[in-house]
Specification:
Blueprint: E1 4-13, E2 18-27, E3 33-40, E4 54-62, H1 81-86, E5 99-100, E6 103-104, H2 108-118, E7 125-126, E8 133-136, E9 142-144, H3 147-154, H4 164-167, H5 174-184, H6 191-194, H7 215-221, H8 223-236, H9 252-260, H10 268-293, H11 300-315, H12 324-332, E10 335-338, E11 341-344
Helix pairs in contact: 5-10, 8-10, 8-11, 10-11
Pfam family, one: zf-RVT
Organism: Centaurea solstitialis
InterPro entries: RVT-Znf
Length: about 350
């Protein structure tokens, strides 16, 4: 429905800036309950600039068929129902009844008690405008009130890391992506990091029993890991994706940087490359934990086989284009393409992975 709209601007007040949210309140006979919050985090907060925001204003504006106005929350702590009654206001008043030329016309007793709050919201009545909620960005422009726009303003801007496409993609396995993200940031609890916390534990790598366990050793230098990567590449069809870089890199960080330079698009091999790498990192870390905290030791061949079986299951049902690259991938992974998807072959047999 269309009618007279009142625009209310509500702000998010932070330590260093004020972000505003503007609400258009429509004057019609069919209103819904709207709940608006204004949050602030004081500059003197002991939590610093990243502390949780605190509610300073919280109120309901209820427009039903009676079109009444009702405030609830901290505002009611100093503007009570008695104040509203003593001011001669009716509960079924409309927004336009207390707004003249875009200015609130609150009675003096309410204005004296809540003027410093009410003046934050300057309504603008517009004939024939539909209700909508807008967000004022930190650049000052009015944009759609959606989560993505709020996220950009309420969270600090961080530089885009070069490896984000290597880790985050729609066909990825979330568990593997999360551990690869930790590894790319070198935040896995390897023993070289635990040593900084004065934790007395043998720092020798449990995969090869040679060398101090670190991200670089665990995923690049360890002879067990190198044989594992070689086994994966030889069967999955991603020849020399990882092993071809070992002669030109010196650390795990270098490997991540070099792999991030690939042009990851929508081709099937772009997906397979990243699935294999993320799964390899995850299973190497899993094997490390099994050996350090348990008795379950798997050989390189067994570990690689489990990775390949898992990725094959992930590929099954994946929507693909029927082209030469897809058909080649289907042959290598013992699959076939039907109706735009990878499916298992009806005559598939154990291929000895």
């Amino acid at each position: 429905m269309r009618g007279t709209a009142a625009t209310v601007t509500v702000g998010l007040i932070g330590p260093s800036r004020i972000d505003f949210m503007r609400f258009s309140l429509r004057r019609s006979r069919k209103w819904i309950i709207r709940r608006f919050h204004c949050w602030y985090s004081p500059m003197t907060s002991t939590g610093g600039s990243d502390s949780e925001p605190m509610p300073i204003i919280s109120f309901y504006i209820l427009f039903s068929q009676k079109k009444r106005i009702y405030f609830r929350g901290p505002l009611s702590s100093f503007v009570t129902k008695r104040d509203v009654y003593m001011a001669g206001l009716e509960w079924n008043m409309k927004v336009c009844d207390i707004v003249v030329d875009g200015i609130w016309m609150w009675p003096p007793n309410i204005w004296s008690k809540a003027g410093h709050v009410l003046q934050l919201f300057q309504p603008t009545l517009k004939e024939g405008v539909r209700d909508k909620i807008q967000w004022r960005s930190k650049e000052g422009s009015m944009v759609d009130c959606v989560v993505s726009n709020m996220w950009k303003d309420l969270y600090f801007d961080h530089p885009v890391v070069p490896w984000y496409k290597l880790i985050w993609f729609s066909q990825g396995i979330p568990r593997h992506a999360f551990f690869l993200w930790l590894a790319a940031r070198e935040r896995l609890r390897t023993l070289d990091r635990l040593g900084a916390w004065n934790i007395s534990e043998d720092k020798v790598c449990v995969l090869c029993n040679n060398g101090v366990e670190s991200h670089s050793h665990l995923f690049v230098e360890c002879c067990y890991s190198r044989e594992f990567w070689r086994c994966l590449e030889g069967v999955s069809g991603i020849y020399n994706l990882i092993m071809g870089l070992f002669g030109a890199i010196n650390s795990w960080a270098d490997l991540v940087v070099e792999l991030s330079k690939y042009n990851y698009g929508r081709s099937i091999w772009s997906v397979v490359h990243r699935l294999v790498f993320a799964a390899g990192v995850y299973f190497l870390w899993q094997e490390r934990n099994n050996r350090r905290y348990g008795d379950n030791h798997r050989s390189v061949v067994v570990l690689a086989r489990q990775v390949l079986e898992l990725i094959k299951l992930k590929l099954m049902g994946l929507k693909v284009n029927n082209n030469n690259q897809t058909r080649r991938a289907a042959i290598i992974w013992d699959l076939e393409v039907k109706n735009g998807c990878f499916v298992a072959k009806s005559d598939s047999v154990d291929d000895g992975w």
